[in-house]
């Protein structure tokens, strides 16, 4: 039975009804970037198209990469156990559904980026021992394993962060027994994914790569821990963190894994320290801009319902607070608080992003520009690398114009980026230098 | 110093047993009758068991080797007579000074609370059984190889890593089992909640992986990665149960190997790989660790029935309460077939736990399991005796007896 057939059966295991095309609003990243210019016609289908083009570049579809271990006995065991959870309130169910349905939008993104940067960098010119014999579509098989490991680690933590605290259960959560069982299965399946990741890492036979990915796991755990502890007290006033603290936390929870995986992919192809560092920076900024983009979503959606909630630790809010000053911000929050509960609709107008989307990048004060300067910058580099491949391998004018459009948008007032294509070695070697315009 | 670290050894119950060269003597829980008769009795029923097991479980545990252990026992008593006795824990601790400080240095964590959680079990109050075995094995292999008197820094790191992997699995196991106390204090999940405890476990595991990668040996990485996989698979085995009695015992032994012995076996193998290039030595180290590890867990399962909770630092009959049928239960079930139903429903009916406990204490399940553990220990001794004599090798032999006679 093929993997895909197996996956088609999975929804039934998980007891899911409804359309598999369901979209998670925060995840269709790039398409919403388009809407900033008022081009609201950019549907999620566009994003899917971009992804599938990127998948063509790297040789085979990366979707469901992390679920490949479905074929093993243990995971079918897990599927059986998860089935018992159907009807309970345990968050593991949501995670499991997400694994199947949102994988095209979010999950495999990390693996895809690792594969793309592997292909972009190509084989190292200095290294002659590393022959092309195990290369498929310009990517070494070890780099493909690495992409999978990246996905496994990410998914494992996704599962582990969905553990519930048994002493904080409400009566609406259902019986304690169900929650205990859900926790048990969540821990086991997360551990199983981690063990698979460790196994894959060991097979790579490269101690530096093992160290990089292990430290990425450590960063990720710390980041998730911090996120959990801040989101637990959502209704309370958040800590007084500036944007630099925010950057540090977000790097741990979102950037470290991709940054270190990209670096490790270069290490596997025996690239030198400079290229490795570039790949690290690239992965880091890519992940950070992804996070900022999803933080922006509640503020740039057309009309938000009153119950629209946003995280008080998200980038726009933190920047707003820094711009406004702590005391004024507390005052604003205080005005929006009713009986100890925060009314998000009342805070909403305070965040300057809630204006015309087109103003976001130009006139809405510090927030949009700051964000743009901070993180959106490196995204064009990827897009230009993408487009060079499109041009040379596929020449898909539609995808090309799409990508260039987005990339031009992101170049907006941002920085000078020098992209150098090295056509002599069948792949692109890029260097980028950017200056802050401030 | 070591003695104040190990207050539980105050009664030194292993000493008389150690002086007694006859390995088969029932050192605990057995009736005080003539030892030879008791021996023969347990041996008989054990052979019946082995007969049924070997068919279900042909290679993995090589049960048939137990037939030869008498000669191994002789050879170990011979070598022992020539060496002067040292406390294996004292001998091991010479290389482990600052063990917990060093582990805490590996846990480079900025968040104060997360750091506190991760360091919670590295308080110096654990038995450090695994690090002791690892450093003793390191020295024994080094001496065997080139008479080297030193422990390499990388071998000492393995001791740290073994303890870290063990602790990480404890933290996760406690959440899975919803345990509330361990080593005489509250578990991490009871103090900080399940959500944070799981992350603390992941964090310790990642710190261990970083330390492992820094050793810079890909063979060692593969060996210890196997442990992580085995730990998870062992936990999965524990979820399922077998209806057939013979399968059930094989299932139990496999689970015991994966959950407990694999860590000891593979970390022993790792230090031997670092200390000596000879694959024969690697296999000796692995077999020693495997057999001692299984014996250790078998005794642990016995203590769950015979010990009171004050001594263990954790509640007793814990396995029954979790629905797990361990060695003593499986042996008792041969005498009292009515236990089968209880095993199948995982002791879920009220009163099952107490009834099962009574059945086990009435049966010879405890003695049989202890006897099985002895057999594993003799196999361990037989393996380690193939190494060149050294104080560390003899300490490892002695340690296998401590495993059998420990009461905590």
Question: Could you give the topology of this structure?
Answer:
The complex is a heterodimer of chains A (438) and B (408).
Chain A: H1 3-14, H2 29-35, H3 44-58, H4 73-85, H5 91-101, H6 103-107, H7 109-121, E1 135-136, E2 139-140, H8 141-160, H9 176-203, H10 207-231, H11 243-268, H12 273-300, H13 315-324, H14 326-336, E3 337-338, E4 341-342, H15 344-347, H16 357-360, H17 366-376, H18 379-394, H19 397-411
Antiparallel strand pairs in A: 1-2, 3-4
Helix pairs in contact in A: 1-5, 2-12, 3-7, 4-9, 7-8, 7-11, 8-9, 8-10, 8-11, 10-11, 11-12, 13-14, 13-17, 18-19
Chain B: H1 2-5, H2 14-19, H3 35-56, H4 69-82, H5 88-93, H6 99-106, H7 112-119, H8 129-146, H9 153-176, E1 181-182, E2 185-186, H10 188-192, H11 194-215, H12 218-239, H13 245-275, H14 279-306, H15 309-312, H16 318-321, H17 327-335, H18 339-344, H19 352-362, H20 365-384, H21 391-405
Antiparallel strand pairs in B: 1-2
Q: What does this entry look like structurally?
A:
The complex is a heterodimer of chains A (438) and B (408). Chain A has a domain at 46-205. Helices cover 63% and strands 2% of the residues of chain A. Chain A is built from 19 helices and four strands. In chain A, the strands form two sheets. Chain A has a two-stranded antiparallel sheet. In chain A, strands 3-4 form a two-stranded antiparallel ribbon. In chain A, strand 1 (135-136) and strand 2 form a beta hairpin. In chain A, helix 18 packs antiparallel against helix 19. The longest helix of chain A is centred in the middle third of the chain and has 28 residues, at 176-203. The termini of chain A are far apart. The model of chain A is unreliable at 1-43, 62-71, 103-107 and 352-438 (pLDDT under 50). Chain B is an all-alpha fold and 408 residues long. Chain B has one domain (85-405): Farnesyl Diphosphate Synthase (Orthogonal Bundle). The longest helix of chain B is centred in the middle third of the chain and has 31 residues, at 245-275. The two termini of chain B are 20 Å apart. In chain B, 51% of the residues are buried. Mean pLDDT of chain B is 79; it is low at 1-84. Classes of the chains: A mainly alpha (438), B mainly alpha (408).
């Amino acid at each position: 039975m093929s993997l895909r057939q197996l996956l088609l059966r999975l929804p039934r295991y998980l007891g899911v009804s409804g359309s598999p095309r369901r979209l998670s609003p925060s995840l269709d990243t790039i398409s919403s970037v388009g809407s900033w210019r008022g081009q609201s016609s950019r549907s999620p289908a566009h994003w899917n198209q971009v992804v599938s083009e990127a998948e063509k570049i790297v040789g085979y579809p990366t979707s469901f990469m992390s679920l490949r271990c479905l074929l093993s006995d243990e995971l079918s065991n897990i599927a059986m156990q998860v089935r018992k959870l159907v009807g309970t309130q345990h968050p593991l169910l949501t995670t499991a559904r997400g694994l199947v349905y949102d994988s095209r939008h979010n999950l495999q993104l990390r693996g895809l980026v690792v594969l793309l940067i592997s292909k972009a960098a190509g084989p190292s010119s200095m290294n002659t021992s590393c022959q092309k014999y195990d290369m498929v579509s310009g990517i070494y098989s070890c780099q493909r394993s690495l992409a999978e490991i990246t996905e496994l680690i990410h998914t494992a933590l996704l599962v582990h962060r969905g553990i519930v605290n048994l002493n904080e259960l409400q009566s609406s959560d259902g019986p304690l027994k169900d929650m205990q069982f859900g926790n048990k299965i969540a821990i086991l399946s997360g551990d199983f994914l981690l063990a698979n990741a460790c196994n894959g890492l060991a097979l790579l036979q490269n101690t530096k790569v093992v160290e990089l990915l292990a430290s990425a796991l450590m960063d990720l755990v710390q980041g998730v821990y911090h996120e959990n502890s801040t989101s637990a007290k959502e209704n309370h006033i958040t800590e007084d963190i500036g944007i630099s603290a925010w950057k540090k936390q977000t790097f741990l929870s979102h950037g470290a894994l991709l940054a270190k995986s990209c670096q490790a992919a270069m290490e596997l192809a025996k690239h030198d320290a400079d290229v490795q560092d570039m790949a690290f920076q690239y992965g880091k900024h890519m992940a950070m801009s992804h996070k900022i983009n999803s933080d922006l979503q509640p503020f740039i959606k057309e009309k938000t319902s009153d119950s629209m909630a946003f995280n008080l630790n998200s980038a726009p809010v933190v920047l707003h607070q820094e711009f406004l000053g702590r005391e004024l911000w507390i005052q604003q929050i205080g005005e929006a608080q009713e009986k100890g509960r925060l009314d998000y609709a009342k805070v909403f107008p305070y965040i300057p992003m809630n204006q015309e989307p087109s103003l976001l990048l130009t006139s809405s004060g510090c927030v949009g520009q700051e964000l743009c300067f901070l993180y959106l910058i490196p995204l064009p580099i990827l897009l230009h690398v993408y487009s060079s491949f499109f041009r040379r391998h596929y020449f898909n004018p539609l995808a090309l114009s799409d990508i260039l459009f987005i990339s031009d948008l992101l170049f907006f007032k941002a920085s000078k980026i020098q992209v150098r294509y090295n056509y002599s070695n069948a792949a692109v070697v890029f260097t980028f230098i950017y200056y802050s315009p401030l | 110093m070591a003695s104040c670290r190990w207050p539980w050894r105050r009664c030194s119950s292993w000493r008389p047993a150690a002086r007694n060269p006859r390995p088969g003597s029932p050192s605990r829980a057995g009736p005080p009758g003539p030892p030879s008769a008791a021996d023969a009795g347990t041996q008989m029923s054990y052979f019946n068991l082995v007969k049924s097991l070997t068919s279900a479980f042909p290679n993995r545990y090589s049960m048939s080797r137990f037939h030869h252990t008498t000669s191994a026992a002789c050879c170990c008593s011979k070598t022992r007579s020539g060496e002067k006795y040292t406390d294996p824990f004292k001998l091991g601790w010479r290389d482990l000074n600052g063990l917990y400080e060093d582990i805490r240095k590996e846990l480079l964590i900025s968040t104060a609370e997360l750091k506190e959680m991760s360091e919670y079990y590295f308080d110096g109050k654990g038995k450090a059984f695994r690090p002791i075995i690892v450093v003793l094995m390191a020295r024994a292999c080094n001496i065997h190889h080139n008479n080297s008197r030193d422990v390499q820094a990388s071998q000492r790191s393995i001791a740290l890593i073994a303890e870290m992997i063990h602790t990480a699995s404890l933290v996760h196991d406690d959440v899975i089992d919803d345990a509330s106390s361990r080593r005489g204090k509250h578990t991490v999940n009871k103090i900080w909640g399940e959500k944070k405890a799981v992350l603390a476990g992941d964090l310790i595991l990642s710190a261990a992986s970083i330390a492992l990668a820094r050793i810079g040996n890909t063979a060692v990485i593969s060996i210890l990665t196997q442990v992580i996989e085995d730990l998870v698979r062992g936990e999965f085995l524990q979820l399922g149960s077998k209806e057939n009695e013979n399968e059930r015992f094989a299932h139990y032994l496999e689970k015991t190997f994966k959950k407990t012995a694999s860590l000891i076996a593979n970390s022993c193998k790792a230090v031997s790989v670092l200390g000596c290039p000879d694959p024969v030595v690697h296999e000796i180290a692995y077999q020693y660790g495997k057999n001692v590890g299984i014996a250790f867990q078998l005794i642990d399962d016995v203590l769950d029935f015979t010990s009171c909770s004050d001594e263990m630092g954790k509640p007793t009959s814990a396995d029954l309460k979790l629905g797990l049928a361990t060695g003593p239960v499986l042996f008792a079930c041969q005498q009292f077939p009515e236990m089968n139903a209880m095993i199948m429903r995982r002791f879920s009916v009220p009163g099952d736990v107490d009834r099962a406990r009574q059945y086990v204490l009435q049966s010879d399940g405890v003695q049989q399991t202890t006897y099985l553990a002895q057999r594993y220990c003799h196999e361990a001794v037989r393996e380690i005796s193939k190494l060149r004599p050294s104080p560390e090798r003899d300490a490892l032999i002695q340690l296998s007896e401590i495993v059998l006679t420990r009461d905590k």
